[in-house]
């Protein structure tokens, strides 16, 4: 029963099919909603607000029997505890104290769930529950674009790119990359149900390619290179070959997008169109009236517009750093900067006509929220957890379950160089960060861990 609750909660925290399922919120509003704007969206949607509150309450009830253990590990993670305390205090200097307070409650609530997830389940079981969650996300993210393309595909400058069960292609890319990493480790961890786990890996990779999220592709390549090296070092050459093959596929897709503006969804669309024409009775006349596959692919591919390149990110980061200089120590409070033209972000919006909803860098956004103090507290918590988990990994035999925690931590770090998912309320990445940090403390002292699930 607890496992079912964990899977349902993780599905909701992943943001899959959440805003789309609410009739009060139009698809246009959902598509434009950024992670940093989610608190306002939740407050205006009572159904979603009560869903989150119900998860918090259930988690607290399940934690009652582990209260002493929870307090112990929270005290062990002083950097994380200080970060949450600073977050709560940031409402005192925020321009929007009530919204900051609402986001603080959400951050505390999902942090408690991350703590519960780590205390209740070993890393191997965490992987198993995440795999179950990702399978539901995969099914939804493939079915929606195929059956309801007006919902499952992007519009505007990203016309035709898949967003699946999410509100943006980058959210699909982030989740698909995380899912592929999880399924790779699950398949390597146990000889049982390997077909199901490898199929999850392949479908996750497919969704990653269809999302055309360049930052997610690069993040995935970096982590899988690490896992390939780890497998090869322990003479698991087949696993290493699979990891390197997936990296080559993603690197090729990235090169197609970045250099030639050829996107996998456009290729698939054209191949499907030509296949239908070939099978139709008038295929010869249709072929004469239609351009070639390669020509159609390039002409229909979405071009860079508004914000789509590394140079645009660097320009935005320079503006953000300038605004950070106004309040470098404590920041603007959680959710106190990106307030449109009427807030501190107005200076950036006047120069960036596409009106960025966040910094496209999780570390800069955390600096904006909580100043250099908050950023240092996070980095200290991350470095300690990653160092301990990496030491534990190197001191043991081949164990994908033990590789899970450092892989998740590394992915969270790398993915937030170009995206702003680091300190977002009610989001699965922060939950996994808290769970990883606590898991290192709880299970790092064990010399031998049962890894089969």
Record the SSE blueprint.
Elements: H1 2-13, H2 27-32, H3 38-43, H4 46-63, H5 67-76, H6 78-89, H7 97-120, H8 123-147, H9 149-152, H10 169-189, H11 194-211, H12 214-233, H13 237-260, H14 264-279, H15 283-289, H16 293-300, H17 310-324, H18 346-349, H19 362-394, H20 400-415, H21 428-443
Helix pairs in contact: 1-8, 4-7, 6-19, 7-21, 8-10, 8-11, 10-11, 10-12, 10-20, 12-13, 12-20, 14-15, 14-16, 17-19, 19-20, 19-21, 20-21
- List the secondary-structure elements in sequence, H or E: HHHHHHHHHHHHHHHHHHHHH
How helix-rich are the residues, as a percent range?
55-70%
Question: Largest sheet, described in full?
Answer: none
Low-confidence runs of at least 5 consecutive residues = 24-37, 274-279, 281-306, 445-453
Structural class determined from secondary elements: mainly alpha
Q: Tally of extended strands?
A: 0
Q: Gap between N and C termini, in Å?
A: 17 Å
Total domains: 1
Proportion of beta-strand residues: under 5%
Rounded Rg: 22 Å
Residue-averaged pLDDT: 84
- Tell me, what's the shape? globular
What's the total helix number? 21
Account of the 3D structure:
The chain has helices at 2-13, 27-32, 38-43, 46-63, 67-76, 78-89, 97-120, 123-147, 149-152, 169-189, 194-211, 214-233, 237-260, 264-279, 283-289, 293-300, 310-324, 346-349, 362-394, 400-415, 428-443. The longest helix has 33 residues, at 362-394. By secondary structure, the chain is an all-alpha fold.
């Amino acid at each position: 029963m607890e496992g079912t609750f964990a899977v349902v909660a993780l599905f909701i925290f992943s943001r899959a099919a959440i805003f789309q399922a609410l009739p009060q919120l139009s698809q246009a509003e959902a598509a434009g909603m950024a992670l940093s704007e989610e608190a306002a969206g939740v407050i205006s949607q009572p159904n979603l607000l009560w869903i989150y509150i119900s998860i918090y309450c259930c988690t607290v009830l399940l934690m009652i029997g582990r209260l002493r253990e929870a307090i112990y590990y929270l005290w062990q993670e002083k950097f994380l505890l200080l970060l949450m305390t600073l977050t709560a205090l940031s409402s005192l200097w925020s321009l929007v104290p009530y919204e900051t307070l609402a986001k603080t409650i959400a951050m505390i609530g999902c942090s408690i769930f991350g703590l519960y997830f780590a205390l209740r389940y070993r890393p191997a079981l965490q992987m198993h529950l995440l795999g179950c969650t990702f399978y539901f996300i995969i099914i939804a993210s493939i079915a929606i674009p195929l059956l309801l393309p007006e919902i499952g595909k992007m519009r505007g400058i990203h016309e035709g790119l898949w967003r699946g069960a999410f509100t943006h292609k980058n959210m699909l890319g982030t989740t698909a990359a995380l899912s592929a990493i999880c399924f790779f480790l699950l398949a390597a961890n146990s000889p049982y149900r390997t077909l199901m786990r490898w199929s999850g890996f392949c479908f996750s990779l497919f969704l990653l390619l269809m999302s055309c999220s360049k930052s997610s592709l690069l993040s995935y390549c970096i982590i899988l290179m690490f896992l390939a090296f780890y497998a090869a070092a322990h003479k698991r050459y087949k696993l290493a070959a699979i990891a390197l093959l997936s990296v080559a596929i993603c690197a090729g897709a990235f090169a197609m997008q970045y250099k030639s503006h050829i996107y996998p969804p456009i290729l698939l669309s054209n191949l499907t169109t030509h296949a239908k024409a070939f099978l139709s009775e008038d295929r010869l006349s249709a072929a004469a009236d239609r351009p070639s596959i390669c020509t159609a692919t390039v002409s229909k591919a979405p071009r860079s517009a508004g914000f789509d390149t590394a140079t645009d990110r660097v320009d935005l980061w320079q503006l953000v750093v300038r605004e950070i200089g106004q309040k470098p120590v404590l920041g603007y409070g959680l959710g106190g900067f990106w307030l449109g033209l009427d807030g501190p972000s107005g200076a950036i919006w006047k120069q960036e006509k596409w009106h960025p909803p966040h910094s496209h860098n999780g570390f800069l956004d955390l600096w904006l929220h909580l100043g250099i103090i908050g950023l240092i507290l996070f980095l200290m918590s991350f470095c300690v957890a990653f160092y301990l988990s990496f030491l534990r990994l190197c001191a043991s035999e081949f164990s994908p379950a033990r590789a899970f925690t450092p892989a998740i931590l590394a992915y969270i770090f790398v993915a937030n160089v170009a995206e702003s998912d680091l300190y977002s309320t009610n989001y699965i990445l922060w939950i996994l960060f808290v769970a990883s940090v606590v898991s290192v403390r709880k299970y790092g002292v064990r010399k031998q861990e049962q890894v089969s699930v």
